[in-house]
Each structure stands twice: as C-alpha cells, then as structure tokens.
Amino acid sequence: MDQVFDLQQKVLIGHKLREFMKINPELSTTDLGRYLGVTQSMVSKLRHDKATFHFDDLPNLFKSTEGLMGSDEFKIAILNVFTGGFIPPLPNYQNVSTDLAALSTRVMDEMRQSTEALNVALDDFSDPSSPNNLKNIDDPEQAFNQLYDVVRYALPLMAIITNAYKLSWTDEANRREREIAKNHEHMI
User: Fold this and answer.
1) Which of 65, 93, 102, 166 counts the most CB atoms within 10 A of its CB?
2) Is 3 a residue whose pLDDT tops 60?
3) Cα dihedral sign for 187, 4, 150, 158?
4) pLDDT of the residue at 185
5) For residue 158, what are the CA distances in angstroms to 15, 51, 61, 135, 162?
6) What are phi and psi of 63, to 5 degrees?
7) Residue 188: pLDDT over 80
8) What span, in angstroms and rounded, lies between the C-alpha atoms of 160 and 154?
9) How many C-beta neighbours within 10 Å does residue 105 have?
C-alpha cells in the first residue's frame, strides 16, 4: 500500500509539534516522552527537527493528543506529511474561515462542483475504452480535482465539528464504520 501513496516511514514533524504543544501547554515534553516511550531529550530533538519521527509511533502520538485543543487538525497535518500529500493538507486558515457555518457553506459549494464534474465525467467512466485514450482525460481529471477539494475542506470541517461539540473523531469514525458494515453500505 505504501507504493500507492508514497508512505514515508520517518519524517520531520518539529514545526507542527511545536505549534501544537504551544497551544496545549499542559502537554509537557516529559509527558509526551512518556507516551512515546522516549526521553525528554528525544522529544526536544523531535520538536526542533533534529530527529525524525517514525510512522510506527503514530498511534502513541495520536493517543497522547486526543482531546487536546486542535488535536484533530494536528493529526491531519501529520498524516499529510507521512503520506506525501495523499491525505490533503489543511487549507490556509487565513483564507478559509474556521466558522462552522462558513466552512459548511464552502464544503457544500465544493460538493456541488464535484457533483457537476462527476456528471460530466460519467460518460468517460461508463466507456470501458476511455482509460485507453489518455489524450482526452480533461473530464476525469476535473472530477478528481473537484473531489480533492471536497476532501480538502471536509476534513477540517469534521475536525472543527469534533472540537466544537467535544466529540471524539476516533469514536465517531468507529461508530460510523459499524453502521456502514451493519447496513452493508460498503456494497455498491
């Protein structure tokens, strides 16, 4: 699977970790080190990009940040780095509002655009020979671009919803997966 989206096994996350710990002073380097099973000195190295963070340590990092301010946004940002962009980055909040109503409107606009792009590309998707003609892929490419925009703005909206309403992203996602399995929604 790592060949599909260029999964990195270790990355530098210092600037993201520093920002997160700055807005959550209750998460000390000592506490974080205890969660990660490393020394306070190693946490300092991670924070200053003097050491790489390993993919296998993500569960402990995410568990240690659960419930803290901005934890879901932090997780998305870290996953963006590890996946080499496969998971979209958070939008620039200087240009995108974190207001729930405003961001919801943005996501709905992106969904409308993606629906239109999918409708236009549907004839390409229905034609089995279409992938063989790579000279004219404008419609499928536009469908991808519009769907990417939905994901890019929907992920932060989901994070803001969980933070505003004190929900656990993990618990909600697990509950939703159980409902999907129960209702056989995975079958198209």
Assistant:
1) 65
2) no
3) positive
4) 65
5) 23, 31, 20, 37, 6
6) -65, -40
7) no
8) 10
9) 12
Query: Does residue 121 surpass a pLDDT of 50?
Result: yes
Q: How far apart are CA 91 and CA 103, in angstroms?
A: 11
Residue that has been written with the tokens 């909040």 in this structure: 93
Q: Token pair of 42, please?
A: 């190693």
**CA gap 129, 8 in Å, rounded:** 35
- Which of 53, 80, 52, 74 has its CA nearest to residue 62? 74
Q: Rounded to 5 degrees, what are φ and ψ at 148?
A: -60, -45
Integer Cα distance of 32 and 16 in angstroms: 14
23 bridge partner residues = none
Instruction: Report pLDDT for 5.
Output: 56
> Up-side HSE of residue 124: CA atoms within 13 Å toward CB?
20
Spatial CB neighbours of 87, under 8 Å, sequence gap ≥ 6: 76, 79, 80, 155
As a whole number, mean pLDDT of residues 8-25 equals 93
- Measured CA to CA, the distance from residue 38 to residue 64 in angstroms comes to 13
Compute the distance between CA of residue 118 and CA of residue 144 in angstroms, rounded to an integer.
Answer: 9
**Res 6 pLDDT > 90:** no
The alpha carbon of residue 50 and the mean position of all alpha carbons in its chain are separated, in whole angstroms, by 25
What is the average pLDDT score of the chain?
Answer: 89
CB contact at 8 A, 1 and 75: no
Nearest 10 degrees: Cα torsion 146, 151, 157, 162: 160
